[in-house]
Amino acid sequence: MIKENINSIYNDLNDSNAELIAVSKTQSIEKMKEAYDAGVKNFGENKVQELLSKIDKLPSDINWHLIGHLQTNKVKDIIGKVSLIHSIDSVKLAETIDKEANKKGIISNTLLEVNIADEPTKYGFHVNELDSAINSISKLPNIKVKGLMCVAPKTDNPEENRKYFNEMAHLKDKYNLEILSMGMSNDYKIAVQENSSYVRIGTKIFGPRNY
């Protein structure tokens, strides 16, 4: 079933430049191997500890993405282990990543999380904070802001999120960035139409999560 689900998603992405990230939080190694065997090379985890517990049990050519909220005290554990951190939501966090990346002599690729719908329960920079944030973070030598990420509002009608994805695309162009991480199981088709680079899909691949 996982393979069929992934093939269906790849079919939807066929005429776009978007890549699939399989969101594997709470999923077993067995299910993740099924997804890998079906062609998935990008896996996204929300929690540092869960990600670290899985890396050594899966093939070494996987690109790991940290897509959940990152606490500053967990940064040292993740630097050098992931290809992209999607969830920079403060200058302080960026400074911590820069410091830890410097210790390891690497450049850490990141995305800034944007609270595009100004939802009080969500992390991320508000749109009017981006100028200042990008200006500050771009001066840090060991962190590279590659693009933007958002978590759009939950809705029964995915079309309602088009305006947010469209605004994200304009922000990417405004700041001359490369990557847009947006779109999940229920609204990824709309996100792809609005030029998403990465869609983060869990439920549509693995089925409902068992917490």
Explain how this protein is built:
By secondary structure, the chain is α/β, with parallel strands linked by helices. It has one domain: TIM Barrel, CATH 3.20.20. 37% of the residues lie in helices and 18% in strands. It has helices at 2-13, 29-37, 48-55, 75-78, 91-104, 130-137, 162-174, 188-193, 203-206; strands at residues 19-23, 42-45, 63-66, 84-88, 108-113, 143-149, 179-181, 198-201. Strands 7-6-5-4-3-2-1-8 form an eight-stranded parallel beta sheet. The protein is globular. The model has no long low-confidence stretch (mean pLDDT 97).
* SSE sequence, one letter per element: HEHEHEHEHEHEHEHEH
Low-confidence stretches are: none
**Order of the strands making up the biggest sheet:** 7-6-5-4-3-2-1-8
* Helical run tally: 9
What is the CATH topology assignment? Answer: TIM Barrel
The helix-and-strand class reads alpha/beta
For the sheet with most strands, the description reads: 8 strands, parallel
State the CATH class: Alpha Beta
Mind telling me which CATH architecture this is? Answer: Alpha-Beta Barrel
Q: In one word, what is the shape?
A: globular
Number of structurally distinct domains: 1
**If you compute it from the alpha carbons, what radius of gyration comes out, rounded to the nearest whole angstrom?**
16 Å
Could you tell me the mean pLDDT?
97
- Strand proportion, as a percent range, falls in 15-25%
